[in-house]
Write a sequence for this structure.
């Protein structure tokens, strides 16, 4: 497989809605390109169903966005609103936004000190396997944690990256993952807790899982992390796992 080129953009601090709208615009542009390309017919007599444009010939673009959101709770399309334990009034007092989203997964938190990554990839140029895609995102984070001497792991049946998932009472999630795919174009992504204020998770049942904790790099290592350094490591590991070249866009 030839290396894919992924356009990287760090959006800095940005409201959740603005980032969501931007993702949607990139996804829809790729879907439009793919639909138009595959609606072409080589000649007037050939049935459209007989024409198939290889994925390698599509002019879709890959993107990876990094962003740091103001405090916000987001609920996945199959999530349970009862996992939100805080009232609307109290959320307003604390300045926490809330959104129902079209990604998979349940309730999670985004906020300062957290690296949120949104890959908008055309999986037809990689592999058409959402399960493999999720495992690869997990691998990006597992490799990043390893650079800090932390053993990240997977928890059977639970998407995301965990520490000590097999040790009863010590299971703690450090990275949440939830994605959407349309015509094999992805959006949404992952949220890695770096210097995140974990108190925000006390007002929800994170990812709908009642008996496990949430953690951060800062908590695990006992000191505030160099946020930009962690971003760079995640970028490098993303490039490695997805066998791609990241170019700043």
């Amino acid at each position: 497989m030839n290396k894919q080129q992924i356009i990287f953009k760090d959006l800095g601090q940005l409201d959740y809605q603005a980032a969501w709208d931007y993702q949607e615009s990139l996804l829809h542009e790729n879907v439009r390109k793919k639909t138009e390309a595959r609606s072409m017919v080589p000649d007037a007599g050939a049935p459209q169903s007989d024409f198939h444009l290889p994925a390698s010939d599509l002019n879709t673009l890959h993107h990876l966005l990094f962003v740091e959101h103001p405090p916000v709770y987001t609920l996945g399309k199959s999530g349970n609103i009862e996992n939100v334990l805080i009232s609307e009034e109290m959320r307003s007092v604390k300045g926490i936004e809330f959104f129902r989203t079209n990604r998979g997964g349940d309730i999670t938190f985004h906020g300062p000190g957290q690296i949120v990554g949104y890959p908008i990839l055309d999986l037809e140029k990689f592999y058409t396997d959402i399960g493999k895609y999720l495992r690869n995102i997990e691998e990006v984070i597992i490799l990043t944690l390893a650079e800090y001497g932390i053993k990240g792991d997977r928890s059977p049946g639970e998407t995301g990256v965990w520490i000590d998932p097999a040790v009863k009472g010590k299971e703690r999630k450090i990275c949440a993952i939830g994605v959407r795919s349309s015509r094999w174009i992805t959006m949404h992504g992952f949220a890695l807790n770096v210097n995140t204020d974990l108190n925000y998770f006390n007002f929800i049942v994170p990812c709908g899982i009642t008996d496990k904790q949430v953690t951060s790099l800062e908590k695990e290592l006992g000191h505030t992390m160099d946020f930009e350094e962690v971003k760079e490591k995640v970028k490098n590991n993303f490039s490695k796992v997805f066998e791609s070249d990241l170019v700043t866009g």
Residues 43-51 have pLDDT under 50 and may be disordered.
